[in-house]
Specification:
Elements lengths: L21 H12 L4 E4 L6 H13 L4 E6 L6 H13 L5 H11 L7 H5 L9 H18 L2 E6 L10 H9 L6 E7 L2 H9 L10 E4 L5 H14 L7 H9 L3 H13 L9 H25 L2 H11 L7 H5 L4 H13 L3 E4 L2 E4 L2 H10 L3
Parallel strand pairs: 1-4, 1-5, 2-3, 3-4
Antiparallel strand pairs: 6-7
Helix pairs in contact: 1-2, 3-6, 4-6, 6-7, 9-10, 10-11, 11-12, 12-16, 13-15
């Protein structure tokens, strides 16, 4: 009997573990093979990285190798240069030999930029020059070998003045040679980067949003996970679907908790679900409280109004002393940073466990 949970939820999934995203995976694969610049948007923990790992793994079987550049929490051009250097230095597989020989031919040594930039000012290279050299290695390699570049957490580029312009300058003449996908978890920043005429990447990529898992797909994932490990899901699949509202990571977290409380050969019931919910709440409540404390007061009030189901302009807003102007500004900010989303013309808190904490914490 397999006693390993079929519901991994901590960190990106391995490619074979990704399911329920067939249409999106096929679309992204076609775009990358056609070298159509694409930006993948979605809230944190919605599976962007997992989906892209699945897509690039599938494509590796037919030719292209992938270079994955993580731009999370960039603060300077030096950070960007180090991120690109780390990505190139970490490449394995068929493309490694091509990449290494290209770097040697351009007199670029990979894997040392971080060390070089930590030297005293007089001995430190210009990070812009270092970055341009690294990007030349990248594009020259793409001329010799099929290549996909994933720019993960691309919204981080907005923190570094001139960084987006430099990337566009170095890459724009090679769009037909490289499959490029930009992924980001700050929806408003990503839309600005590609939709604002003042931005270097204006109109450079198609924007694709990763949405919640469909109810049917999520039900299948939960039922299959239980059944393949010798357990009866009972009421759990329906409870997970209703509670998680399609949030991929939270759905798997809830399913995992219920699975662990269901013995091999047993059936999950309402008590199982109740105990699983209590266990998960215990593990996340302190984090939810800390997150809430970091949010500005106007946004806190707006989240409370949304969670209680009332209009941000209605009776609940009056009770919270939430003015219409503050509510409008808060909604824009919360939509932009991924805390809120619109579904069927209704505002919802994206993270169901955060919404659950707010609801319980401020219950009448």
């Amino acid at each position: 009997m397999n006693d390993r949970s079929p519901f991994p939820y901590q960190g990106p999934l391995a490619p074979p573990q990704v399911s329920g995203r067939d249409e999106l995976i096929a679309d992204l694969a076609e775009r990358l093979m056609d070298h159509r610049l694409t930006a993948l948007l979605g809230p944190r923990r919605f599976g962007k990285t997992s989906v892209l790992r699945r897509v690039t793994a599938d494509l590796a079987a037919v030719g292209p190798d992938t270079i994955w550049i993580d731009l999370y929490e960039l603060n300077s051009m030096a950070d960007l240069a180090v991120a690109v250097d780390r990505a190139l230095h970490g490449v394995t597989g068929k493309v490694r030999k091509v990449l290494s020989s290209t770097a040697v031919g351009l007199s670029v040594q990979l894997g040392v930029v971080g060390l070089e930039l930590s030297r005293a000012a007089r001995d430190r290279p210009d990070p812009v020059v270092a970055l341009r050299s690294l990007l030349q290695v990248l594009v020259r390699t793409a001329e010799k070998h099929p290549l996909i570049v994933v720019l993960d957490e691309f919204s981080g580029i907005a923190n570094v003045t001139g960084a987006a312009g430099l990337l566009r300058t170095e890459l724009q003449h090679h769009y037909q040679e490289i499959g490029i996908v930009f992924a980001g978890s700050q929806p408003s920043t990503m839309r600005s980067l590609f939709g604002d005429q003042a931005q270097p990447f204006f109109s450079q990529a198609d924007l694709i949003e990763i949405g919640p898992l469909e109810d049917a797909a999520l039900t299948d994932i939960v039922e299959r996970g239980f059944e393949e490990t010798g357990r009866d899901p009972g009421v759990v699949a329906e409870r997970v679907v209703r509670f998680s509202r399609g949030h991929p990571q939270r759905a798997m977290q809830m399913a995992d908790a219920a699975w662990r409380l269901t013995p091999a050969g047993g059936e999950a019931d309402d008590e199982t679900w109740s105990d699983a919910l209590d266990a998960v709440r215990t593990s996340v409540d302190s984090g939810s409280e800390r997150l809430y404390e970091l949010i500005p007061t106007g946004q806190q009030k707006t989240l409370r109004a949304v969670v209680t189901g009332g209009s941000i302009y209605g009776a609940v807003a009056d009770v919270l002393d939430l003015s219409p102007g503050t509510a409008r500004s808060a909604v824009d900010a919360l939509l932009g940073n991924g805390y809120l989303a619109r579904r069927n013309d209704k505002l919802i808190v994206v993270d169901p466990l955060f919404a659950d904490w707010i609801r319980r914490r401020f219950a009448p």
